[in-house]
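mind reviewing this stuff:

——
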Amino acid sequence: MAASEFSTLKWGQVDLDRYPNVVVPPPGPKSKQYHDRCTKYFKGLSGQVKQFPVAFESGEGCVLRDVDGNEYIDFSSGIYVATLGHCHPKVSEAIAKYAGQLMNAHDFTTPIKTLLCEKLAEVLPGDLSGLQFYDAGTAAVEAGLRVLRAASGKNEIVSCFYDFHGKTQGAVSLAHIRHRCYGATRVPGMHMVPRPNTYRPMWTKPDGAIDTDKYIAFYDEYIDKGSVHDVAGFCLEPIQGWGGSVMPPEDFFPKLRKYCDDNGLLLMADEVLTGWGRTGKWLCMEHWGVVPDIVTIGKGFGNGFPVTCVAVREPYKKSFEAISASSSYGGNPMACAAALASTEVIQEENLLEHAQRLGELALQRMARMKDEHRIVGDVRARGCLMGIELVKDKATKEPFDEAGKLVYQNAFRKGLAWIPAGHILRMSPPIVMDEATLLKGLDMIDEAIGETEKELLS
């Protein structure tokens, strides 16, 4: 699609008289042809592609186009990546400039890297001032774990059920291991504990409220009895992404921060998915006034260009020296240009505030879905990180995986590109999206839920 098609609209705004535009029932014949040709060689597809194998060819702002000419509203941002929409001019121009000037200088200093470091020191909370750059979220997580050990002088690390931190051996050992290919056991010293889920709590008070104190007490007991007393700290997602946009209670992270401080433990926040504007803050942890000791940043950091970051607090900066922190692609000029441009766009367009408004609007609209549909058990949103949990029965909360698949496919056929997760529907629209487009996308989901109920419950 030509840029001129959007010239009369504010970036991120969608002409709803034109989009979505489904001209051929998707996946169309060209999509199927490309998919068959590609997957003759390309294997290991995600669930969202397996369930709806369209082939995309272009995108701009909050609109995607497939090879058959169908045009979709994007509620995925790739996979939480194109936070500023597809091909934001400032970001694309910044990448193109350095693609023609200097692609890589390993970890030597460059002017653009210096500017990015200074910008991050300006916007990051607290004293998060030690930085290193990588090319993928998992690489950043693994580096962060090494810093966690180097800074603490200890080895064991604790994460939580349904957290997701990447697909390498260390990261997988702090998550739900789904296949023996990752190893018959976790890496020694990696521990998993439950965390409070506002919809499915393990411990509650007599009034039904989540008892976060019992979770903290369990951690204390587990570390005393289940570890070898060599715990470096915790590594957690602020909001669980793969787990289904699972939000913590408001008091959980402040209490966990205090527990860590009281017991000489460090707190690492994996913000690859939740950071850089997605939830309406630079870091999601800022919603609770918590500054982690170590944080990983990725996905939307470069708005689609592969660039990630590990940031650590001032007392632990020298720990980078102990871990051989540099990487082949981390901090290359194109990556730094993409991250700096993305950060400046968020500031210049007041997108943190806008993302928060979109989240509030989405929560209001999804609350109506919960009231009106038998299979909607829970809805949640924090900025442009949203989820809808489908259940067979609201009393038992039994997951409804079949419904999740059908709702995903039904909405996609209407022209909504988004993310499935079993019985939990995940949404991550670009934070530049206008309110009318957000509501249009949610209306399409509402319609798809209604169609699915008729198909499965009639």
